[in-house]
Amino acid sequence: RVRLMAAQLAREIRIVALSAPLANARDVALWLGVPVQPHALMNFAPAVRAVPLELRFDTGTAPHAADRLAAWLPAVHRAVTECPVDASCPSALVFVPSRRQARLVAADLEERAAASDAGTLGVGVLHEALSADDRSAMLELFAAGRLGVLVATRACCWALDGVRARCVVVLGTERYCVREQRYVDYSVPDVLQMLGRAGRPLVDSAAQALIMCPVSKRAIYRRFALEPLPVESRMDAQLHDVMNAEVAARAVGSKQDAVDYLTWTLLYRRLLANPHYYGVAGTDPRHLSEFLSELVERTAADLVAARCVEYADEDELSLAPTNLGMISAYYAVRHVTVE
Fold first, then answer.
1. d(CA 232, CA 270)
2. What pLDDT sits at residue 226?
3. How far apart are CA 89 and CA 91, in angstroms?
4. Helical packing angle, 266-273 and 285-305, nearest 10°
């Protein structure tokens, strides 16, 4: 949208984007309008790190997730104790699926340390239910080296700004989803974010990471951890709310405007590069035009049925926002919720 507005206003903009290593970085760069010149696009391999990383896997064969987590506890203790605890800086981070698991793992680490006459490890627990003061206190103790191990839930992996450790353990790669009532896999960005916590620049000469996952998932996580990630667009599945917001902002006033808007998206770039992924027969103009027109027609019909958008003419080509649509866009509420 920003690039479309810049083109309409004839004004130049500068976009600075950071991401994980990408397999199709050039497509993303062209979408962002990065000029074709040296040093405008820099794409590094995953192995390029400030601190070299030794990545290991421990796979489990137990049929149930809870049984696998219990079986991995001795390996977690070994991985943590193999990392020397420096009094001036933290030692290990352990990521677990839930708050309950965080408490169990912390208690198990302390019990095993006491039983081995190694003394206390200094184990802290960090989860999303802690108050802001408790969370800050826990991170300060970990950063000061008072805690040798910090056990954190998966949801906290994005809130550990500046927190790093010599060793990172990902205890399990599945979490229980209440909505779906089943165990679902961690997303790849979540796992990469956890691995990114391994290694302290200017402190460690090497870092260690241990991923504990089912046997069937080992190859998948190994590939995504050691190879660049391809990026595909999901706008075709999320277009309803995007179009509703653009119609409410008067940036899109007709179906043709919506088609023109899509030509500025990453979706359009990837349609040209990988058409079969999106169910398009080919990359010639006729196939692309038919796909985009049908996508806009379906999306507009769904928004009209949800009473977020209405047709402004008898030909059903012009689009206008309704009160419900403007409320939905203003509060970032999904159109299905409004419906």
1. 7
2. 83
3. 7
4. 140
Joined together, the tokens standing for residue 301 give 């019909």
Single-letter code of the amino acid located at 37: Q
- Where would I find the beta strands (DSSP E) of 80-196? 92-96, 123-126, 149-153, 167-171, 174-177, 182-185
Averaged pLDDT, 43-66 = 84
Contact between 169 and 80 (Cβ < 8 Å): yes
Distance of alpha carbon 102 from alpha carbon 318, whole angstroms:
54
Q: Give the per-residue pLDDT at 183.
A: 87
Distances in Å between the Cα of 234 and the Cα atoms of 51, 231, 259, 267, 337 are 33, 10, 16, 7, 20
* Segment (H or E) for 143: helix 132-143
Cα 283 from Cα 319, distance rounded (Å): 28
- Contact criterion met (CB below 8 Å) for 151 and 110: no
d(CA 50, CA 256): 48
Q: Kindly report, residue by residue over 14-54, the tens digit of the pLDDT.
A: 777 777 778 888 888 888 888 767 777 888 887 788 888 88
Q: Give φ, ψ of 310 to 5 degrees.
A: -135, 155
